[in-house]
Amino acid sequence: MRISIVTGEIEKRIGVNGKPYAIGFQLLLPEQWNKKFLFQGGGGTNGIVSPAIGKTPVRGSDALPALSRGYALASTGKVTVVAKQLIEQMYQTKPSKSFFMGCSNGGREAMQAAMRYPQEFDGVVAGNPGFRLSRAAVAEAWDNQHFLKYAPTNEKGEKIVANALTQADLDVVVKGVLKQCDAKDGLADGIINAWEQCGFKPEMVKAELGERAEQKVALLNAIFGGAKNSQGENVYASWPYDAGLNTNGWRVWKHGSSQTAEPNAINFMMGVQSLAQYFMTPHNPAFDMLTFDFDKDVAKTAEIAGVNDADETDLSYLQAKGGKMIIFEGVSDPVFSAHDLRDWYNQLQVNMQDVQGFARVFMVPGMNHCGMGSATENFDPLTALEQWTDEGKAPDFILAKAGSEMSNKAKEMPLCPYPKIATYIGGDENKATSFECK
To answer: What PANTHER family does this protein's entry cite (predicted)?
Structure first.
């Protein structure tokens, strides 16, 4: 099938720093069109234009955002208007349905689309959304400080962050988590559906953590307890213990694998710059994340949060229009806490009526950030969204199949709309029909 590709830039300009800026986009125009428009979100700090209908980006480029407001929200609205104009010119008709789908920062963009541009979209899919990126950046500072605090030193006296929790340590933790929590959903199968009822504490496996066990337990308690101020109040959510914490998709973000004094974890490489040069005002490229004060400096993220974060808990316009929203989140996401999304969704239900009628959250046990992990991570939320908007069929579950890192490749599982969980009711342990959302 013939496909026309349109690549363009909006608001091309030279910034005050003398560098060129623009809002870039790519649009595919197939010869045979289904009359629907899909906007695919970006990732990380954006700065690159990924192929349309390609892999959803997570990190983006190393370039700083061109303009806070453009990166935060304006680019979505502007690109949507231009894309729809091009579609109408090409096909002499408007899209019958318009959707937004993205993961990570693209998930935040999807939530921004639902909150800021509900008139433009019939539905959105927001995956592992960085809907409170400003506070997640604060959480990265907290994690980085504590990993360095508890990291052992090498023969040169250098801190080796990756060795603060070794692969063997993480295996011990996950083994303990599974022992404590796996069977609470009716079946010990390596998937912790009842993650909110887990109740695991690092002290339960202290004896198996070997040398430096005291420091490892203290580090785990600090990380999973969430970023706090000196009064012990959380400035970012706590994190759930889950089965995907010993996979590469968790480690690569949190503390990496570098055996030198230079950590290679994404939180260290990307988080330091994003906090100093974007989320905090005034911007200060020389700011040291290791000096971040959780009493005084959190407030410095408020200005950017006001335009960047997508944590509005009143989606009346989307609901009134008949728009739909599907959000999914990996319970083992090392970047954005599943507890934070849960708390937002619970508040949405406090503020609005019949939230399940237009917005549903699907937690994915064992999944890391936008995939990977010990999880049934292969699922299709976009088709579920289309059925909801086109046929009025709300997704009571989404079928999910084993991902590449699951040892049991035959595993299927229903992903349930929160707060329901997949509960084993008997039969073939690998079949989704052996589970019920309740």
So the answer is: FERULOYL ESTERASE B-RELATED
pLDDT the model gives residue 18 = 82
Tens digit of pLDDT for each residue in 130-162?
Answer: 999 999 999 999 999 999 999 999 999 999 999
Determine the 3-state secondary structure of 425 from DSSP: coil
Span 198-235, pLDDT tens digits = 999 999 999 999 999 999 999 999 999 999 999 999 99
pLDDT digits (tens, 9 = 90+) for 54-110: 444 343 333 333 333 334 445 788 889 999 999 999 999 999 999 999 999 999 999
Tokens of 179: 């022992």
Question: Rounded to whole angstroms, how far apart are CA atoms 263 and 165?
Answer: 13
Distance, first Cα to last Cα, the chain: 44
Where does 3-132+309-394 sit in CATH, by number? 3.40.50.1820
**What DSSP assignment string belongs to 21-42?**
EEEEEEEEEESS--SEEEEEP-
- Buried b vs exposed e over 403-419: b needs ≥16 C-beta within 10 Å? bebbeeeebbbbbbbbe
Place of tokens 């999304």: 341
Which residue, 430, 360, 356, is CA-closest to 400? 430
Q: How far is 241 from 223, CA to CA, in rounded Å?
A: 11
Task: Domain ranges for the chain, please list them.
Answer: 3-132+309-394, 135-305
- The reported pTM is 0.92
Neighbours of 31 (CB within 10 A): 8
pLDDT of residue 61: 30
